[in-house]
Write a structure and sequence with these properties.
Layout: H1 3-15, H2 24-66, H3 74-87, H4 93-112
Helix pairs in contact: 1-2, 3-4
């Protein structure tokens, strides 16, 4: 017996404590009807998922056409979009992308100065590479 059938059986048992006792055949009939309804709803659910996926793919394609400078920086885009989406869970996806553009551009500018290929074997821990003068605010 699967989890769905066990759940339905538990509900039936709780419902029928005060009502007449139902036979095993009646229980199976109710379970089979519930499983049938669930299975019949799957095509609609899957269709909706496919439609949503296609829509999001189209929006993403348009986004990268509008902002070709983001193409090689998909990790930055993903990080910022997830952050914006977390802060604004009720916003439409297109609005989230529009809201993310300034932050993505800002992060790309910051990352241009970071050397990700030549990593020193011994990291300086004395902060001699930090500029404390001017408006740097300690930015590396």
């Amino acid at each position: 017996m699967g989890q769905t059938e066990q759940g339905i059986l538990l509900i039936l048992t709780l419902m029928c404590k005060e009502c007449k006792v139902i036979t095993e055949e009646e229980k199976n009939e109710i379970i089979n009807k519930a499983v049938e309804k669930t299975l019949l709803s799957l095509p609609e659910v899957i269709g909706n998922l496919i439609t949503n996926h296609v829509t999001l793919h189209k929006i993403n394609s348009e986004f990268y056409k509008e902002h070709p400078e983001f193409t090689g920086k998909k990790d930055v885009v993903q990080s910022v979009v997830e952050m914006i989406e977390g802060e604004n869970p009720l916003l439409d996806y297109k609005e989230i992308l529009d809201k993310a553009v300034p932050e993505i551009k800002k992060r790309i500018v910051i990352m241009q100065d970071v050397d990700m290929t030549n990593i020193p074997k011994v990291v300086k821990r004395d902060f001699s590479n930090v500029d404390f003068s001017g408006n740097g605010n300690g930015v590396l």
